[in-house]
Amino acid sequence: MRARRGSRFGRIGLMVLAAAFTLTFAATTWAQTPAEINAALNAAYAKYKDIKEGKNADYIPALAKVNPNLFGIVLVTPDGKVYSVGDIKTEVSIQSISKVFTAAQVIQEQGLDSIANRIGVDATGARFNSIIAIEGVRTVVGAGAPEMNPLVNPGAISSTSMVKGATAAEVWKKIIGIHNDCAGRTLTVLQDVYKSESDTNQRNQAIGALMLAYGYIKSNWQQAVDLYTRQCSIGVNAKDLATMAATLANGGKNPVTAKQVIDAAKVPGVLAIMATAGLYDDSGKWLYRTGLPAKSGVGGGIIAVSPGKFGIAVISPPLDDAGNSVRAQKAIADISNALGGNPYAAKSR
Ligand code: DON
Question: Is the pLDDT of residue 27 over 60?
């Protein structure tokens, strides 16, 4: 009898312990309800949908024709739940956001040191297509010194050149492959954007040639510039981008398809280059306000990652002077702040 009562108390004790453990564990994880997440998205959408600041990119003629009123917000959590408001279906070109995933492909196949040693992982503090930044690095640090970043054009064209493959088709298969795996569907190139940028990308061709001359690109800079232009022309909607961001928020595993795309140990390096150069010369301001690794594209998209909590994406084409979507920056900052997304913010005990 005593023994039985003892075992019942033992079971109750175990249940109490388990409940205490669950409560403690839950208290240390992100605990936003779906209603809170939807409220944060809806509030940001309503607040910013009518603002008129910024202007579509027009140095790539096809981008000037995109509807400037397009506005969609999607947040995806590591358990694969998708929250959205606005236009989540219309595709824009991914542009510079592709730089993250091509760099991730290089890191995945060749390790974290490959990018750090060949290109560098520092902030350039310069515009995304700055040629002065290339010369500045050489002048200050010396020939071939890796002080660039794979998320600005010179570093990005160089990281595209690093993806291994005997032919351009083999390299492209890997580049589009990692984008597809992170988005969780088969993406396609927007041919009008690809043609428009190919016809007008003389500046990137100059950057490619310079990066070859200075040793960042080892051979065939023309192929690297062409594949880079193609990767920038991949069509994505806000849901694709948010799923890609959520893959990074979830240790490299796509939370919707459950495919492990990037080794978890390599993801912090990818997030670090987003923190140092994701919003170009405004990366510091952005990090100061949000704490979120992020990446913008001149097509109007921005992705941001709150590790372990959510990936978020906004598409809205009008850009500020640095080339970052005006509405997307404002909406993501508000939503993340409302939901406690800043990874630097810890509650004191
Ligand atoms: O190379 C370019 O200029 C474009 N394909 C990409 C630039 C870009 O997206 C910069 N983003 N904010």
Answer: no
Question: Does the pLDDT of residue 17 top 50, yes or no?
Answer: no
Give yes or no for residue 98 CB within 6 A of ligand 1. no
In angstroms, the Cα distances linking 150 to 101, 114, 275 are 10, 11, 12
Q: How many CA atoms lie within 13 A of 116 on its CB side?
A: 7
Q: Is the dihedral of CA 96, 315, 93, 201 positive or negative?
A: negative
Determine if ligand 1 sits within 6 Å of the CB of residue 232. yes
Partnered with residue 325 across adjacent β-strands are 319
Ligand 1 atom nearest residue 232's Cα: 5
pLDDT digits (tens, 9 = 90+) for 117-154: 999 999 888 889 888 888 877 655 565 557 889 999 99
What's the pLDDT at 138?
67
Instruction: Return the ligand 1 atom nearest residue 153 CA.
Output: 1
The pick from 130, 153, 175, 201 for probing ligand 1's pocket by mutation, whose C-beta has the most ligand atoms within 8 angstroms, reads: 153
Q: Measured in angstroms, how far is the CA atom of residue 181 from the centroid of ligand 1?
A: 22
Residue 142 near residue 215, CB atoms below 8 Å: no
pLDDT higher than 70, residue 3: no
Q: Which of 63, 129, 198 to mutate to test the pocket of ligand 1 (most atoms within 8 A of CB)?
A: 129
Q: Which ligand 1 atom is nearest residue 298's CA?
A: 9
Q: Which residue has the tokens 């993801």?
A: 267
Mean pLDDT of 10-37: 54
Mean pLDDT of 327-347: 96
Q: Does 25 have pLDDT greater than 90?
A: no
